[in-house]
Design brief:
The chain is an alpha+beta fold. The chain is built from three helices and five strands; from the N terminus they run E-E-H-E-H-E-E-H. The protein has a three-stranded mixed beta sheet with strand order 3-4-5. Strands 1-2 form a two-stranded antiparallel ribbon. The longest helix has 12 residues, at about 90-104.
Amino acid sequence: MVDHDISCLVVTGHDGYLAGIITRNDVLRGYLASDEWQRLPVGDYMTRDVITVTPEDLLSTVADLLLDHRIHRVVVVRQENGKPKPVAVVSDTDLIYHMMKEVK
């Protein structure tokens, strides 16, 4: 995450379906909780109840979710076999970037 300046990673199961999300803050929480933080499984600190949207959802819906849940990103999923398959992540930074392009 540090080497590539990535603020979160989407976690999937062996089947490729959404299992959770782990953020920089989750990693910090693991670091503060244990001297063995580097040996802890991601599942111990990831968020399992992920806020998701579909590719068809409006960007205004994404903005509302970010503000309502006080989060910085949502995972875009496509339903496949009744399960969420992650296809992208949309962050508050992404929204601000595109909002500012519209203003110019």
